[in-house]
Design brief:
920 residues, alpha+beta, Calcium-transporting ATPase, transmembrane domain, Rossmann fold, 30 helices, elongated
Amino acid sequence: MSGAHSSLPLVPARSWSLPPEAVLEALDVELARGLTPDEARRRHHHYGANRLRETRPRHALRILWDQVASPIVVLLAVATGVALAFGERLEALAIGVVLIVNTAIGFVTERRALRSMEALRRLGRVIATVRRDGRIQRIAAEELVPGDLLVFEAGDVLTADLRLVVASRLQVDESALTGESLPVDKRVAPDPEDAALSERASLLFKGTAVTRGSGEGVVVATGMSTELGGISQLVSEAEPEATPLEVRLEALGNRLILLTLVIAAGVALVSIVSGRDLYLSIEIALALAVAAIPEGLPIVATVALARGMWRMARRHALIERLSAVETLGSTSIILTDKTGTLTENRMVVAELDLPDGSSLAFDAAAGSIGAFARDADLVDPAGSPLLLESLRVAALCSNAVLVRDPRAEPPGTGDPTEVALLYAARAAGLERAELLERAPEIREVAFDSEAKRMATLHREEGSVLAAVKGAPETVLPACTRRPGARGESSELDADGRAEWLARAEALATRGHRVLALASARLPDADAFDFEELTFLGLVGILDPPRAGVREAIAACRSAGIRVVMVTGDHVGTAQHIAAAVGLCDPGEGGGSPPLDARALPPSDALSEPEVLDLLRTRVIARATPRQKLELIALFQRHGAVVAMTGDGVNDAPALKKADIGVAMGRRGTQVAREAADMVLQDDDLGTIVAAVAQGRTIFANIRKFVLYLLSCNVSEILAVAVASFVQGPLPLLPLQILFLNLVTDVFPALALGVGEESRASMREPPRQRDEPLIARRHWLRIFGLGSAIALSVLAALLLAVSALGKSGREATTVSFLTLALAQLWHVFSMRESGSGIFRNEITRNGWVWGALVLCLALIGAAVFWPPLVAVLSVAGPGVDGLCLALGMSLLPLAVGQLGLLLRGSGRRGRAVAAALQEPA
């Protein structure tokens, strides 16, 4: 039907008050077919993309204005005006060039970083499931149009306004629109025409979350036409997100600007009092202010964060909130689910215990479709009627579908447990489709999370077959008989049920998920009530540990990060997996035994020993969503920075509560992904570890950049200030200061900001949540290294005059070269104290070597290229002057390396002492 009309159909007004058939007819769409691709394109062209009005990316002119309005540009503009006022046209031109170059570097760098971050955000496209052209398809939610048939289930976030046409036990959380915290029931029947928004049970709204059931709806509004779009009209333009790190950097920069202006004013005053030229004194003060202001701080923060996000994206970790990048580096505890994170989330049947007491193993990897064995001897399923009957019931009591290719990955669609059962049934020659032809399904008694069982009823040979599967503790009590190996049937009494429950418990302690299978013969479907069942055996299903998890947990341990498994599974299953992945290895300090959350009182009623057990344990089983919230709060109260993984609707509150919420990208629901700070696109614990390492690296890179930049600025201030106070010759001229500010403050510093991950980053404990970017020890290092560089510059100036007999310009050129080279070599003093002198994160950073080559070329041009020589007022220093500058520039590097060696030996000594004090 769709596409038959040349004009677009009108979306019916008050669609909630119309029957679903009337809405479908008005939108010219058939329920069984949906829109055709051509019609969908036509409507998309008319209605536009299904998205809310987004915050517009910062325009290039806005970025340029922010650069022009910075303190550095203001000071350069003032310096240009001063030069013109005193008739120094060449210097005014030179300062103007510096102003333009500095602004251009800031503009290009920030624009590229912002483009990178915007591109990253585009990676997180929301996917919708629709019926188009008679087929179920997954498309980008932006492509939805009025008339599309959207298919959804529990855990999905709705991406358009819908008129409900099919519903099964449907509940939706509409708190985003109505503020009502409880989920609301939805139904297909029309509502009154005057129903309020919160009373329209037949409508579903964009941005709300399905918490139970499933259904289908026809799209009646997209984008800004939705109810959520109407609300977003009230919001004009959101402020760009600023991370705590960026706020701290801005505050640091503002304090340094104030301090620098005071120092520059003091230097100018002393210079004037000592009899220097007024213009020179003012220009020196302005140049000092320009050199000392760390104008690159916000730029490098943006660059480092954006580059770190790209690296995380390459490792399948998509950052949803920029502030999470900083918090990652201080993560001290990872609370992780078991399924899909520590394990493969690929359920396979491992063992079948048949009702005659025999046990069969199933190897899903054997042959092309798997094989059964008893005591290592292969078993032919055709010769085991009990095995065939058990697998037949398991295949019938299912909603999963296997693909034809047995080597396909995944092997089927549906619940992984049911897929595993169907795969085992296929190995026995049983296909569900063929079984349903002989025993058509009448109805299904859906799985109930409280009863933990389900059944399907089938018409077979004039009677009704009930196929039942579920948790042993709920199925076995309903079983009264069991078949024998030769077709006979015997009573299953209380002792027999207890024996099978004990066998189920034993299976669970070996890490299996255990299901009981049963059946019943009934005269009609209405007679079924989970009573008088025939027990058909137990199935042990295993989710194998993921490859690389043991190594990831070991990496966390060496980094001082605790990994705690919090799962709703059986204690035995959790303990088995924990041991398999090295989480509870007693030889590595496995903490207290696994805890059963069912035995724990509420968090506010915990005794001191119970709190200590919780803080020490690494496995918590049978945990509820509420207990996960309480556990996060408990760890946070004790100073931990908590990362929490989750995938379901019920995990969303815990993901929001955690310092870092980590959602699973493959199996996670949209609700979980939207509540999270980070999405793992591969559901791998190792990806979290890599992201934590990257978070630490980003913070360390920014700290290195700040240390480098401030120590270079301190060296310039001290060198000029000391020379002014003692009324000696100036080691640097104003334009030389500006040149160095442009060269050595930009390229090596930015190279530090984008450095690769340090090998030592995951061998240190996590930093404290409130640790400042620049602590007291860092300030001591800044002034110590800055003083070493300043003293070497002043010593070079003194030796050039007294020992080499250089003239004023030649001597100043020697001190200029000494400072320039010392600042370049100074980048190697930014390595970690425990790293090698020649092999470390700085020497492995290709950007650093590129920056050094570029800067050396520019410094060479400043001394030997006539146009720059004239502008900077330098003179040929001669071979002896070059050797003096080179030699004196290496002294601060030697001081810095000696300090790192002493600091590293002190740290190793403390580590050895701590190790010796550890109890055996």
